[in-house]
Structure formats: C-alpha cells, structure tokens
# Entry
Amino acid sequence: MTDNQPFSGKLALVTGASRGIGAATAEALAAAGAHVILVARTAQALEQVEEKIHQAGGTATIAPMDLADRENVAKLAQAIGGRWGNLDILVLNAALLGSLSPVEHLDAKELERVFKLNVFANQALIQAFDPMLRRSQKADIVGITSSVGSEPRAFWGGYGASKAALENLLLSYAEETEHSGKIRVHIVDPGSTRTRMRQLAFPGEEPSTLKPPETVAKAIVERLTSNAVTGERVRVGS
# Structure
C-alpha cells in the first residue's frame, strides 16, 4: 500500500458502473489500487469502462446483470466469495429515476420498478455481501442518494421516496454494525452533476454548468481514505 494507491490489494464492487458517477468512481478506485467489480446491465458499456481502467494501469472485472433480480445478486455474491473471499468496498450507485409526476398520477408498475432497483436491490446486495464485508479487516459501503431523499420536492415523490427508504436502510445498517468497528456506511449526495439521469430530469439545463462525475468520484475516494465515521450523510460541492 502506498499513498498513491491506498486501496492496493483491496476489492471493490460498484453498481451502475457503465457510465456517470458509477464509471467515474470505479475508475478512481482502480487508480487508487483496488480491483473493481463493474456491475451494470449493459455488457458493452462495462467493457469500455474496463478497458479504460486497464489502459490506466488498473484492474477490473465486469459482471453484466440486472440487479432487480435477487437471484442475480445471490449468484454474484457466491461467485465473488468463491474467488476472493471478502469484499472491502461496496458502492451502491445504480438507480432508476422514473417519471416525474404528481403523487396521485404515479404509475404503480413504474413505481414498483423504481423501488425494486433503488431499494430492494440494494438491500439484497447488503444481505448477500454482508458476510464478505465482515470478513474484511476494514470495509466501507457507499450509498449514492439525492437531496430529494431528505428534502421532498413536488413531482419527485416516487424517486424521492425510494431514496428516503434507501437512506433509512443504510443508516439502520450503520447502527447495527457500528459495534464491530470494521464496517463504515457513507451516504453521499452528489449534488448537481453532469449525468444522464440529471439530463433526463432537467432537459433544458446546460450540462457544461454542472460538475463532472469525476468530482464526485474524487470526493468518495477522499472520504474512504479519511477518518470519517459511519452513518454520515454528506453532500459533494462544486
């Protein structure tokens, strides 16, 4: 382990790693020495991120899958546990925005899909990887949230409710594991960031006015290498 590669010998898993904040975080963790498992639905996009990591001198493994299927999560954990034994960093980034709509007009099937990925899949990941996190000498979970998870906003009820539920799950897990002194939970609100989801939510916004995903990734790495305590919610500035 060196100052330039504080995660040398560590294993990280990043969901939603095919683009945006997930891809940037995976690349930053790899640059810091971690071997990164890249998880998302699109294999081709994951391969591009993997190639970028390899070209920069890092290492990564792709795992294309639909996280909304709990069986996929269980199989992934079994495969990783069989090969590596423990997991040091888990970044819960994958999310679905859904339609921005008044609460009374939310489509039930779409809302179910939002919760299935934003909440249920993340709980399944924590459940499946908990044994491997506990086997690590020091493990970190990073949950990517949104300001609407704690500050309700008109027309954002579906997505905001899913992020509020995710935050509650993560904060509960933080309290449940705090006694061990081995697992830290970080809730990170990236703020206004140049991502595809942001573009879908604010189509008239000029992307160049927003910070790039790499700024969020840098903030995550800095937090993981700091003495930050478990169960904190932080917002990334410009």
In short: The helical segments are 20-31, 43-55, 70-83, 108-135, 157-177, 196-201, 213-224. The chain has a mean pLDDT of 96. The two ends are 30 Å apart (CA to CA).
